[in-house]
Amino acid sequence: MTTGSARKEPLYTITIPVTDLQELNNYQKGIIELLAKVHLEDCTSHELENIKAIYTLLSHLTIKNDFLLKD
After folding, report:
1. How do residues 32-70 score in pLDDT, each as one tens digit?
2. Which of 3, 6, 47, 67 has its CA 20 to 30 A from that of 23?
3. How far is CA 60 from CA 24, 26, 53, in A?
4. What does the pLDDT look like over 34-44, one tens digit per residue?
5. For residue 66, what pLDDT is reported?
6. Radius of gyration for the chain, computed over Cα atoms and rounded to the nearest angstrom
């Protein structure tokens, strides 16, 4: 039996095409700036769960150290 906090292996990989690292940086910066406008103390528990999901998505928009080595 697994718990809700058990880390699961991803079933899918989503590819977001970017033309360069600046475009990726713009995506990250845009999400972070929008999240900075959210007043967490005013959020419902449902909204807080949605914000957690956005932060999880944001964590996946990072460059892996070896990405330049891939063909």
Report:
1. 999 999 999 999 999 999 999 999 988 888 766 555 444
2. 47
3. 11, 15, 11
4. 999 999 999 99
5. 54
6. 16
Distance of alpha carbon 63 from alpha carbon 60, whole angstroms: 8
The distance in angstroms from the start CA to the end CA of the chain is: 39
The pLDDT score that the predictor gives to residue 4 is 56
> Tokens 């891939």 — which residue?
70
Q: Assess contact for 25 and 16: CB atoms under 8 A.
A: no
Quick count: other Cβ atoms within 10 Å of Cβ 52?
A: 10
Cβ-contact 29, 66 below 8 angstroms: no
Structure-block tokens of residue 50 = 């949605």
Nearest to 34 by CA among 7, 11, 57, 64: 57
